[in-house]
Write a structure and sequence with these properties.
The complex is a heterodimer of chains A (197) and B (116).
Chain A (H helix, E strand, L loop, with lengths): L3 H17 L5 H22 L4 H11 L2 H8 L12 H11 L3 H12 L5 H31 L14 H36 L1
Helix pairs in contact in A: 1-2, 1-3, 1-4, 2-3, 5-6, 5-8, 6-7, 7-8
Chain B lengths: L4 H21 L5 E2 H10 L10 H10 L3 E6 L7 E6 L1 H30 L1
Antiparallel strand pairs in B: 1-3, 2-3
The chains are: A mainly alpha (197), B alpha+beta (116).
């Protein structure tokens, strides 16, 4: 017979599973917990008993919730998601000026093929035109305002050759970011192949 | 090889092989999750934690090697049944061929080494 006590053991197990699987998307986590719950019901039905011994046996055979959650989440299992269309689109858009900020960086952040550190590096590189450009305009505005009597080139209105140079250099940031991420993809693919031999 | 290396290698081999064992169990017809898990754990040394099979089933479904459908069962509540897809059948056939080669090759070396 199922008792309050055995119900509580099962509930505690499922709560642990839910916590261990916190990194999974919500629908996936709910599905996993539901599957394990059904398994427990089926197993108890098969055992023909639902006393504490039967319940503990079923849970023991299922294994630690942390292990189940780890098997469900690719990063924890040590295998990054394989590069697909999302990653290709992210790399292409990241390399393009402006498009990279609006589309490229969000796509990179969405992807599961890169770890957080690589995403951050790519985002900073992608945004570097904004940073460099902003700095350039700030410097230009400063020097223009400081010396009123200087030649026309450094007037505060237009961008001087220095600023244009810095901006175009800055636009390379997205491209460099894309190349960096592409290299990281190849790196993460190699050890995986080795490990699966 | 560090201590526990053999155990590590075995658990990697096991992980790789279990998914094809699932496909093999579905070769002759559909089964539901609990049934698959119990069949697998009857094989000595194949499954250490039954719970880890469920994430594996999800992965097989995502890779379109199996499909699922909810169905009433003869006894008990509606259940999710797993069926092999054409892609799954192909993957199983490919693995079966490669596995035989792999097993024979490794066996050959292991036995040879043992005989010396």
């Amino acid at each position: 017979m199922t008792t309050v006590h055995t119900n509580e053991i099962v509930a505690a197990y499922l709560r642990r599973l839910e916590q261990a699987a916190a990194s999974l998307p919500r629908p996936r986590r709910a599905e996993l917990v539901a599957e394990i719950r059904e398994h427990i019901d089926d197993a108890l039905l098969e055992a023909g008993a639902a006393d504490e011994v039967a319940v503990r046996n079923v849970l023991e055979r299922l294994g630690p919730p942390e292990e189940i959650a780890a098997a469900a989440s690719p990063p924890a299992a040590g295998t990054a998601a394989r590069a697909g269309r999302l990653e290709v689109a992210a790399l292409i858009t990241l390399a393009l000026p402006f498009v990279g900020w609006l589309v490229g960086i969000p796509l990179v952040l969405l992807s599961r093929a890169w770890v957080g550190r690589d995403k951050a590096i790519a985002a900073v590189l992608g945004l570097s035109p904004l940073l460099v450009g902003g700095l350039g305009i700030f410097v230009a505005g400063d020097s223009g305002g400081g010396e009123v009597g200087t030649p026309i080139e450094s007037s505060s209105g237009g961008l001087g050759p220095l600023e244009v140079g810095m901006l175009s250099l800055g636009f390379l940031g997205g491209l460099v970011g894309a190349v960096y991420l592409a290299l990281r993809l190849r790196r993460s693919a190699e050890p995986k192949e080795l490990a699966s031999v | 090889m560090e201590p526990g290396g053999a155990r590590n290698s075995l658990s990697q081999l096991r992980r790789g092989a279990v998914e094809y064992c699932v496909l093999a169990l579905l070769r002759d017809g559909e089964r539901y999750g609990f049934e698959l898990v119990r069949k697998l754990s009857e094989v000595d040394g194949l499954v250490t934690s039954e719970g880890t099979i469920y994430p594996l089933l999800t992965r097989l479904r995502r890779d379109r090697l199996v499909t699922t459908s909810w169905r009433e069962s003869e006894s008990g509540p509606p259940r999710r049944y797993y069926q092999l897809t054409d892609g799954g059948r192909e993957a199983l056939a490919g693995f079966t061929r490669e596995w035989a080669r792999f097993r024979d090759g490794v066996d050959g070396l292991l036995m040879e080494e043992g005989a010396r």
